[in-house]
Structures are given as structure tokens and as C-alpha cells.
């Protein structure tokens, strides 16, 4: 499979292309548009589909931005092919085709040339849609391509899974609901692109000109299962739930029994959103990690005074091995210091001059602040939370450290202690809620950000007396057996003993976590980096 990173192009397998063409093209008189045809896999699938329908001279229109790519296909294409070498965002004439099929570019607007970014934003303005700067080009492609359809037309696109949860896609969901009578999302555990870290879905939208309040969500284990219609699970999802940030696609992947149990726990207030108890923010942004975190040797060389150094935690590694539920450094670790001069001494001035001489003051963040060497937003949080991994580590900030933006800093809002919240955190219900509310990076690695962390649900309350004994056992467990063991121990100490959940209920929760991890970590994508390394990378 060929990948063009600069343009965000990921070329699709023939089997998927054939499936999408067969779904979209239903009559020999149909017409088709492919708005970014790349290697021509969808065009080939369309020509083959039309041939099977008895039409050897179909109307097929293909658009491609890159001249070399365009020519490679167009020069040998069938005579009925109508090609256009230009940016699809420049195409303004409505052509009223029966179907649009393709795989639009997955490139962030921020990575486009200024004129290309402006063109995409202006095109969305034509449809009275405000395009967020955080958006990706696949969204305006989808909407603009849909507007090339005739009444009752259909669109079949390969899109990144992020369509199901990112904020900038909400206008797209509103558009789909208002302009199509039937909308379907298909998710397959087997990757469409096994060599790249992109999780994808199929968007199939039918009956252009009608409307629907819901989207059909179907999941399959393998591409073979899709082709054989061997469905694993099917659910209807309200478009309004997508827009209101309920992340319904993840929730719908659980069994009915698991979904009912979660709803029951919410109704009983057994679990509540984390934001009701604690607010997590990113830590400080220093702009140059090496300069603003001088090591012992640097501190001795410049004779930096202790008053200009704040003990800090700048990485999740610093609260990992050897530490329990507290943020005190482990036996083989040493935490950093953040350079924050108050009353600037002669030693501070020498170190500041060093920063100027090495160009630190020219860093973007440094240029935005006065004086450049003072890091803003420094706070001492109550709790510290790591941001990557299946089992994030939450610790009490008993060392009163300041925290960098490599971690999340938690500030207690409710009438509870940091220790109580830690005890409420470590159990499988928290892991399940993390899977339901937190997005993953391309390779399936979870990454906690403030807004999503706010929505993580934890058990409602643990008394100070209960927390005392639970904290001790959790602390010992983390030090001796690690985080995963601590979450399991929390099932016993908190879910079973305090909240009286049955063994079966706890097992259902664990099974739900396993299900969501299975779908978050497709086997092909887990092994992609290893395969690329074995081939020397590309």
C-alpha cells in the first residue's frame, strides 16, 4: 500500500473499494464522481461494477490534485473517463452525479498552504458552515462532494474514526442528518490501512435530499465478515448524542447487559463525572525543557540559588517506577527543578545571558511573555495524573511539586481529600469510563486531555476512614505489582467491599474494558511499526 504523507493520502485496498462501488452503483445508468482518485483504485472498482451492470461506457468523473498522479491514471484510462487535474475545493459547478465514492485526504488544515487552507474554509462558508482551525481536510471534502449529488444520490467514503467524536466534525453530522435519509458507519477490527497508524471507518450515506435523526452503526471483525454480511453488532445512534459529546459509538460497542449496568450505576449515582470532584488542567509550558530544567551540574556551574528553583515533575516517568500513590521520587530517581527567578540575582543573570546566547529567548513561547524567562501558569496541584496508556497513574501531590504540560494537574473542588479521590480512582469502573470518554492516538495509545478527563466517571464517595486503609493497600500494591494490579485490587477493596457490587457485575465491567481495548488496538495496527522497522521503515 502506498502512502503519501504530505498530502494526507492513504490508498485503499481493492476489496474495500469493490465493496463501496457495489453499494453505491446500483443501476447501469448511474454516474459517479471520485474527488481525489490517487492510484485509481475506486475508479477501477467503478468501471468493473458498471461492466457487471452491463454498461461499458459509463460516466465516471475523477478529480486529482497532483499532476503526476493524475497523468499516471488518466493516460491509460478507458475513453469514457472524464478527468480533471485540480484541487477539488476549486470545483464549483454542481454536476449532479448518482454516487460519490472515495477516500479523501486526511491532512490537518494547519498543515496546508495558506491559500489551500483558505480555499477549504471559504468552501465551507458557502454552505454556512464554520470550519475550525483544528479540523482536517476530509470534512470539507465530504460536504462538498455530497453537494455534487443528484436527488436520492449516495456517498461512500473511507474516513478516519475520529469522525465519531471530534468537535470539528459536529457540523458534518448535522449536515448528514439534514441531507440524507439514511446514514451508516461501518467499523472493522481488521485495519483498512495496516501499515499506517490511522483508524478508519466507512461512511455510507444514501437518499440525498431527505433527512434522518439517527445513524446506523455496524461493526465487523474482518473485511471477509463485511463482504459476507457476518455482522458482529448493530446499533442505532442519535446524531444529537454525537453532537452533545456523549461518544455514543464507543458505548454502543458494549453488550446490552453491560450498557444497562452502566446506566443503572449512573441512575443510582454510584458513579459521577470527575469534574464534579476535581478539575484537571495541563501543567505549565516552559518552552525549552533542557534550559528551564537545569540539572545538578548546571545549577552548580551557574551557582543558581535555591530560591530560583522550584521542585517540579516534568514527565510521567518521574512518578513511575518505585513510587506508589504519592509523588515523592522513587529510590533511584531524582526530580527536576524549574528555573523561575523571583528577585534576580547575579547568578540568575549569568544563566539568563546563557539563555540569550543559545537562542532560548527566541523560542515562540518565550517571545510571547515578558520577561521571557518567567514561565507562567505555575500552580501546585492537589493531584497529578499521567496522560498516556491504558492505566493512567493518579498520585497525591504530597511533595508540593509544580507540574509540566507532560502531565495533568488536578485541583480538588469538592469537600474531599486528595487521598479519597485516589481511592475512588483505582478500579475497573474508572478504566471503563476512560475507554468510553478518552480518545486514542493513531496507534491506539490513549491520551488524556482536560475536556475528556472531565467526563471520566468515578465512584461517588469513599469516607476518610475507608480511604485510610485503602490508600495503604493501593500504595503497597503499586510499588510491588504495578498499576494494573492496583486497578484490580480496587475492584476488591472498593467495588466489592464498599459498593457491594457482585462478582458477576465486576466481571461484566472488566469484560467491557477488554471489549473496548480490543477494538481500540487492532492487531494489524499494533504490529505496523514492527513491520515497518523490519523493512527499514518508509
Give the number of domains: 2
Number of continuous helical runs: 22
Q: What is the CATH superfamily classification of the largest domain? A: Vaccinia Virus protein VP39
- How far do the termini sit from each other? 11 Å
Write a structural description.
The protein has 538 residues and is an alpha/beta fold. The chain has two domains: 3-253, Vaccinia Virus protein VP39 (Rossmann fold); 278-526, Adenine-n6-DNA-methyltransferase TaqI, Chain A, domain 2 (Alpha-Beta Complex), CATH 3.90.220. It has 22 helices and 20 strands. The strands form five sheets. It has a nine-stranded mixed β-sheet with strand order 5-4-3-6-7-9-8-10-11, sandwiched between helices. It has a four-stranded antiparallel β-sheet with strand order 13-19-16-17. It has a three-stranded mixed β-sheet with strand order 15-14-18, with no helix packed on it. A hairpin with a 4-residue loop joins strand 1 (3-4) and strand 2. Helix 1 (14-24) packs across helix 2, helix 15 packs across helix 18 (464-481) and helix 16 (428-437) runs parallel beside helix 20. It starts with a strand and ends with a helix.
